[in-house]
Amino acid sequence: MVLSNPNRSPATLTKTRVKAAPISGICVTCLDGCPGPCEIGRSAVRGREMLYPMPFGKVTSGADKEYPCDFSHFNIQGTCVGAVGMEADSDKAIFPAVDVTAQIGVKDKVTLSFPCFTGALGSTEIARVHWEAMAIGAAISGIILVCGENVCGMDPQSEIKNGRVVRSPEMERRVKTFKNWYQGRGDIIVQANVEDTRLGVPEYVIEKLGVESFELKWGQGAKNIGGEVKLPNLERAKQLKDRGYIVLPDPTDSGTVEQYNVRGIREFERHSRLGMVEEEGFYKMVEHLRKVGAKRISLKTGAYRPADLARAVKFASQAKIDLLTVDGAGGGTGMSPWRMMNEWGIPTVHLECLLHEYLSFLDKKGEFVPDCAIAGGLSLEDHVFKALALGSPYVKLVCMGRSIMTAAMVGNYEGKKLAETCAHEQRSLKEAYLEHFAEAAKIRKMFPLGDYDQIPAGAIGMYSYISRMTQGLQQFMAGARKFALKHITRDDLVALTEEAARISGIPFVMDSDADEVEKILGYRR
């Protein structure tokens, strides 16, 4: 069984000439004179550029490795008996009555209309371009929006004095866009990595911009290094090197300048430093954030080894933070090194099972257990149900990165096409939106007509996607006879393979309900 596809991928715009050897990924017969469409061949010409998915700034990328166990290895249990959280009455226990609202937080709680939040939309070009759509979409959908790392440091117009940011127009735009459309549910969380902490981003967004929720970042599921983006020109590369970032190749080196001038170098890379987690330092930072005014604090950690997950669980418990997000391998991002995205880290299902074990242990000891979220390749309502059930009762939310970005991008693209058509046909764009987007009429009822044309098509696309998942989740929950999220349990899942059962502790399908079957029939296999 081959799980990976080395040396060829649509993500790197490469392929092999003939059948490849399964281990190396190299063509069985490597031809002298081949133009080099494989990653090795193209790397011989463009070197480090081939580390990353392409074309940068226009794609999000997700691992194509087939892991031994994923959410498809579980099915959702249904029943024809009773109702939990609702009167067992066929006229009342209908799927539209299912409550999919969620709540997180210790003291200052936040309510969400649907149990999900966006992935961290940081300094990548694709996040910047589509921010308005995703921020407004999150605000009107009642979910959490996460503004990711390096936004202030990457903002060309940032004002930095004595190494601290005093103003960032781009960060101001991001926060204000969400707040201007906020409807009372959901939240905006700003995230910080090593570079952001050095720049004083936490203090700036909390004290100056009124952000109430802040996230400390240890890492993500797509890579085990700091964040990176590509830079289009020498001047931008020099600016960010001056701000303290790692920039490759060195834009101040004379050889680099010479090669750039003849277009031998077409892009630069900006990298963040690796964070160094220390227990006491973590507690001090949490306390500092609370002192400067943060009402809610979250921690985002990646697909690191089990010992690091244990650290995250312990530190989150001891500090009594509001949310712990665990991001498994196999998810997506804007620009992680492609092979790293596929070949490092613990996959989402395995990581969530470990998380459940560790949290259960703390719970039995009487320790504080934080609200948790799981991330890593989740995209539709069955994933949401399974992730909540597998981590029950501790996992309250799911983080959905690429899927939400996809909905916003498609919405923006469709809106652009509609605008061009309407301009050509001299017809109303509002009318075209009502005709094209199934949820447009519902959105128009939520907002005065004068504001309707200010909602970008991407936000309508994102709202429509969340609406679809809302009904889909309600249907799954009604079938399981669970009429509120708090009633979902691990018993609502069944493992389809013995390996999935072993990893998770969820009963194998042929062993499920054995005790109840014995009570009903007096029979046991």
What's the topology here?
Layout: H1 39-46, E1 61-62, E2 74-76, E3 102-104, E4 110-112, E5 116-121, H2 125-129, H3 131-141, E6 144-147, H4 151-154, E7 159-161, E8 164-167, H5 169-181, E9 187-192, H6 194-199, H7 201-208, E10 213-217, E11 228-231, H8 234-242, E12 246-248, H9 254-261, E13 268-271, H10 279-291, E14 296-301, H11 306-319, E15 323-327, E16 332-333, H12 338-343, H13 348-364, E17 372-375, H14 381-390, E18 395-400, H15 402-425, H16 429-436, H17 440-446, H18 449-452, H19 457-479, E19 493-495, H20 498-504, H21 514-521
Parallel strand pairs: 5-6, 5-18, 6-9, 9-10, 10-14, 14-15, 15-17, 17-18
Antiparallel strand pairs: 1-16, 2-19, 3-4, 7-8, 11-13, 12-13
What is the residue-averaged pLDDT?
Answer: 94
Q: Describe the strand arrangement of the main beta sheet, using strand numbers.
A: 5-6-9-10-14-15-17-18
Profile the largest sheet: 8 strands, parallel, barrel
- Spans of at least 5 consecutive residues whose pLDDT stays below 50 are none
- N- to C-terminal separation? 32 Å
Please provide a brief summary of the model:
This protein is α/β, with parallel strands linked by helices and 525 residues long. It is 41% helix and 14% strand.
What does this structure look like?
The chain is of the alpha/beta class. The protein folds into 4 domains: 1-51, no CATH class; 73-85 and 97-227 and 279-401, Alpha-Beta Barrel (TIM Barrel); 228-271, no CATH class; 407-479, no CATH class. The chain has 21 helices and 19 strands. The strands form 6 sheets. An 8-stranded parallel barrel has the order 5-6-9-10-14-15-17-18, surrounded by 8 helices. It has a 3-stranded antiparallel beta sheet with strand order 11-13-12, with helices on one face. Strands 1-16 form a two-stranded antiparallel sheet. Helix 11 links the parallel strand 14 and strand 15. Helix 3 runs parallel beside helix 5, helix 3 (131-141) crosses helix 19 (457-479) and helix 11 crosses helix 13 (348-364).
